[in-house]
Amino acid sequence: MVVKQRWVKMNAVSALLYVAAFSMTLCWYMEVSATKTAPNIVFILVDDFGFRDVGFHGSTVIKTPTLDRLAYGGVRLDNYYVQPMCTPTRSQLLSGRYQIHTGLQHGVVRPCQQNGLPEEMPTLANMLHDAGYATHMVGKWHIGYYREQLLPTRRGFDSFFGFLNGRAEHFSHAMCIDLGRPLRMWEFKEYMSNDTDEKYVKRELCGVDLRSDETAAVNYSGQYSTHLFTQKAVDVIKSHARKQDAKPLFLYLAYQALHFPLQVPETYTKPYASVKDENRRTYAGMATCMDEGVLNVTVALEESGLWNNTILIFSSDGGGDVTLGGNNWPLRGWRRSLWEGGIRAVGFVHSPLIERGGTVNTGLIHVSDWFPTLLGLAGRDTAGLNVDGFDVWQSISNGGPSPRKELLHNIDPLMPKHGSRLNISKFDNRVRAAIRVGNWKLITGNPFPGGWIAPPEETGNYSSIPDPSPKSKNVWLFNIGNDPNEETDLFESHRDIAVGMLDRLAEYEVTAVPVRYPANDLRCDPKYHNGFWGPWAHMKHFPGVGKASSPHNTSFRRLIYSVVFPFLLSIKYVLPSASVFNP
Ligand SMILES: [Ca+2]
C-alpha cells in the first residue's frame, strides 16, 4: 500500500516534470524553427529619388536596369507613400508611428538639436533583434544622435557603418553647416557705422560624419559614398553567411544617393553626356551608380546562399528635388511638399518568397506599414505598441486589398499658419496638414510649391506648368483615384467631404504629442569632438570656456537679441527677419 502510494506520488511528480520538460522543448523548438524559417530582410532606402527617375516609371534617359528587373519580377508598389523629407520618413519606417505620435512633426532633426526618435519607442531593429534576427545598418541614420543612447547600435542594430546627419560630401564625408549668429554689441556698432545689410555673422561648423559602430571612422576619405556603403553591405552579407548560428538577417541599407551635394565619379556621367542640364546629368550618374550598388548587393546575397530566403524592399524616402536634378513628372510638386510629387514614392518588393511576382500592387501602403509588416514576417505582432502602420504583407504577396484605408500625411503645428481661417471645422485650415481617406486627399495650410515640372531632357514632349493656386489659398481637395496629378481641386464642389476630412484631422490632432524642435546647442561643434559629428549631450562644459550654455539661452541675452537689437536695427532699416535672431 505504502509502496503503491509512493509509486503514484513519484509518478505524478515525474509526469509533471515530463510535461514541463516537453513544454520547454516544444517552446524551444518552435522558437528555433520560427527563427530558422523567418526570411532575411534587406531594406534599401534611397534619398530624394524622383518618382519619374526610374525606368519602370517611364524615365527615358536615366538608366536603372537592376531596379527595373527586380521591380518587374517582384511587386511594384503603385500606391505607395512616404514622407516628403528625410527624418520624417526614417522615423516612421523605424517606429511604425506617425510624426504626430513621436514629436517629430516639424522639419528634420538638425545637426545641433537635442532631438531624435524618443528612446522609449522600440525601433524595428530592436523588435527584429528580439525576434532572433542579426541586425545591421549601413548608411544614413538622421533620426537623432545628441545622446549616445540614440546611436543605431543602442537602438537595436548589432552593427552600424554610416553617418548620423542628413547629408555629407560624398567623397570626403565632411559636412559643414552655417548656424549664423546675431551681431555682438561691438559688431553692432560697426554695423551702424558701415553701410552694410549684414545683420548676422557666419558661424560655420564643420566635421566628418562617418562612424563604424560608435567609433569615428577614419581613412575613408576619397571613397565615394555609394561604393563605400555597397561594399560595407556586401561585407555584412558575406560575414553573416559565414556564421553558422542560423539567425535570419535584417540589413538596413540607407544610401545617401541621390541627396545633394550632387557628386559622382565621372565614369557614371559619361553615358549621360547628351543631358545638357548639369544637375540632371550628375543626378542621373548617381542613380546609375546606386542601381549598380543594388545589383552588387543582390549578387552578394545570391553568392552567399541567402537569396532564396530573402525579401528585398526598395524605397525612396521622398520625392525628387527638381532644383537638384530630380524629377517627379507627371506628379505635382516635389521634395518637401505635401503634393503627390513629395510623398508618392518609388517602391517595390522582390523576393522568391512572394506568391505573385511580376505584379503591380495598387493598395494604399505607407512607410509606417513596414514596421508591423516586417515584424509579422518575423513571427511577431505589434499589438499594444500603438503603431500607426498596418501589416500589408498579404496584400503584397497575394494581391489582396490593403488593410489601410486612411493615411495621415502629417499635421505640422510649427509651420507658420497660412491664409485665412474658414471656421467650417474644429481643425484650423491654416495649419499645414494633409490626409488621405480612400481616394480623397485633403491638403491644408502651406504645402509648398505645387507646379508640374517636366523632365529637363523631355521638354520637347512635355511642358512644365506653374502652380496655379492663388498665394493665400490654404485648402484643396482631390480625388487621387481619378486625378493622381492633382489637377482638379474639388473643395468648392465637395465641401461636405472636405469638412468631414477636416474633422478627421481634428480627431488626429487630439492624439498628437507636443512637437519638439529645440534651439541649436553649440556643444555639437565637431571641433570639440576630434573633428567628427557625434553625440555631445554628455559634455558638461565647453572645453576651456566654462559652464556650457548656448549664447542664446540666457534670458538677458534673449532680451537683447529679441527686443533691444531689433529695435535699434529698426532705426536704421527695417526689422530684421526672425531667422537672424533665432539661427
Ligand atoms: Ca530625403
Question: How would you describe this protein?
Answer:
The chain is of the alpha/beta class. 29% of the residues lie in helices and 16% in strands. The strands form 6 sheets. The protein has a 10-stranded mixed β-sheet, sandwiched between helices. A 4-stranded antiparallel β-sheet has the order 17-18-19-20, covered by helices on one side. A two-stranded parallel ribbon has the order 3-16. The longest helix is centred in the N-terminal third of the chain and has 36 residues, at 2-37. The chain is globular and about 70 Å long. Residues 1-10, 19-35, 545-553 and 572-583 have low confidence and may be disordered. The structure holds calcium ion.
Which characteristics define this entry?
alpha/beta, Alkaline Phosphatase, subunit A, Arylsulfatase, C-terminal domain, 3 domains, 10-stranded mixed sheet, 4-stranded antiparallel sheet, 22 strands
Write a short abstract of this structure.
With 583 residues, this protein is of the alpha/beta class.
Helix/strand layout:
Elements: H1 2-37, E1 40-46, H2 65-73, E2 75-77, E3 80-81, H3 86-95, H4 124-130, E4 134-140, E5 159-163, E6 174-178, E7 181-182, H5 185-193, E8 200-201, E9 204-208, E10 211-212, E11 215-216, H6 225-242, E12 249-254, H7 278-303, E13 310-316, H8 340-343, E14 347-350, E15 359-361, E16 365-366, H9 370-377, H10 393-398, E17 406-412, E18 432-437, E19 440-444, E20 475-479, H11 495-510, E21 541-542, E22 546-547, H12 555-572, H13 578-581
Parallel strand pairs: 1-12, 1-13, 2-15, 3-16, 4-5, 4-12
Antiparallel strand pairs: 2-14, 5-10, 6-9, 7-8, 10-11, 13-14, 17-18, 18-19, 19-20, 21-22
Helix pairs in contact: 6-7
The chain binds calcium ion.
